[in-house]
Write a structure and sequence with these properties.
The protein is α/β, with parallel strands linked by helices and 381 residues long. The protein has a domain of 217 residues: Type I PLP-dependent aspartate aminotransferase-like (Major domain) (Aspartate Aminotransferase, domain 2). The chain has 15 helices and 17 strands. It has a 7-stranded mixed beta sheet with strand order 4-12-11-10-7-5-6, with helices on both faces. Helix 13 runs parallel beside helix 15.
């Protein structure tokens, strides 16, 4: 066992199940351990490293901003914060933005805003949905394993069956402040929402007066081959959360709202000490700029199609689904497959006993997809 793993076991809270790898550095789509062995990274910091490890363009922009100004608090205006909000308005089609440090913070803000804007308390979420682990975000996260030890949570929350219009119609009512949806359920194993299901959510919004929150923490910033998964569904939510890939792994997130929602909130309703600090905003601006300059939305679509077509031809693969470079694969033994792939220097994430998630950097190249598919083909041989 590595000295570092042994030392970690003595000082770090043991919340995580980790791979037995001590990562030393990264380059592009590859990670290198303390002994110099390299692995093709199809996890990307759980969909965070959008433009590749060690990206010099992003790193130089962060370094330049760090030398000028890292933090002053939201008592003052800063140029990177304004520039980032303007850029997000351009690519999201939403109107107002508040910056956070993570996805779960973005969800917490979204829930507060929904209650404030509607004057209602209830939320509707969905089976197998995941929105974070802080108390509000956890309250709309479905899995009992995550929820039960920390009850009572924020309520009321009704869980409808994902992709079931009938279950949705039973759960939503005139007491509902918001329906919160992952357009593609990530932690569950990459399961997209049906188009008719999404359409019905918006019809019910118009009938019952609740708000629609899209949790795009994992699906945002090109992951699905579009800037956001909402673009695939041609739907604009009232509130949208984002984080993960926003800063190429730098801790930054945001919640976006329509102008109509914004008119119903007041100064002092929410806040953050570190949210939207100049360093985080510059990291996000550089990441977005790199995605644009290198046409990574198109690359995500092309490489995703190549990946999915290759996986569909394998005998042990039961199902392949997703958009762009957000791919779910169902197999008989997900853990066994992930262990096999790690032995072949390919890293994937088993999200359940049967499901594997593939979420590499958007910079992945054809030869790297081929390398991964070769490792998949060797499974069971």
């Amino acid at each position: 066992m590595s000295e570092w793993i042994e030392r970690e076991g003595k000082v770090f809270m043991q919340f995580f199940n980790r791979y037995s790898i001590v990562v030393e550095r990264g380059e592009g789509c590859w990670l290198y351990d303390e002994d110099g062995k390299k692995y093709l990274d199809l996890i990307a910091g759980i969909a965070c490293v959008s433009v590749g490890h060690g990206n010099e363009f992003v790193a130089s922009r962060i370094a330049e901003q760090a030398r000028k100004l890292m933090h002053v608090s939201n008592l003052f205006y800063t140029k990177p914060q304004v520039e980032l909000a303007e850029k997000l308005k351009e690519i999201t089609s939403l109107d107002r933005f508040f910056f956070t440090n993570s996805g779960t913070e973005s969800v917490e803000a979204a829930l507060k805003i929904a209650r404030r804007a509607t004057g209602r308390k209830k939320f509707v979420a969905f089976t197998n949905g995941f929105h974070g682990r802080t108390m509000g975000a956890l309250s709309v996260t479905w899995k009992e394993k995550f929820r039960k030890p920390f009850e009572p949570l924020v309520g009321p929350v009704s869980f409808a069956d994902f992709n079931s219009i009938e279950s949705l119609e039973r759960a939503a009512d005139r007491d509902t402040a918001a329906v919160i949806l992952e357009p593609v359920q990530g932690e569950a194993g990459v399961f997209p929402a049906d188009r008719d299901f999404v359409r019905r959510i918006f019809e019910l919004r118009d009938e019952l007066g609740f708000l629609v929150i899209f949790d795009e923490v994992q699906t945002g910033f090109g992951r699905t081959g579009e800037w956001f998964a909402k673009d695939i569904y041609n739907a604009t939510p009232d509130i949208m959360t984002m984080a993960k890939a926003m800063g190429n792994g730098f801790p930054v997130g945001a919640v976006a709202v329509s102008e109509d929602v914004h008119t119903k909130i007041e100064k002092g309703d929410h806040g953050s000490t570190f949210g939207g600090n100049p360093l985080a905003c510059e990291a996000a601006l550089a990441t977005i700029e790199y995605i644009e300059q290198n046409n990574l939305l198109e690359n995500a679509r092309r490489m995703g199609e190549l990946f999915m077509n290759g996986l569909k031809g394998l005998d042990f693969v039961e199902d392949v689904r997703g958009f762009g470079l957000m791919i779910g694969v169902s197999v008989g033994d997900a853990k066994g497959l992930s262990q096999h792939l790690m032995s072949r220097s390919v890293l994937v994430n088993a999200t359940s006993e049967r499901d594997v998630r593939i979420i590499p950097p958007l910079t992945i190249r054809e030869e790297e997809v081929s390398f991964a598919l070769s490792a998949f083909r060797e499974y069971g041989v």
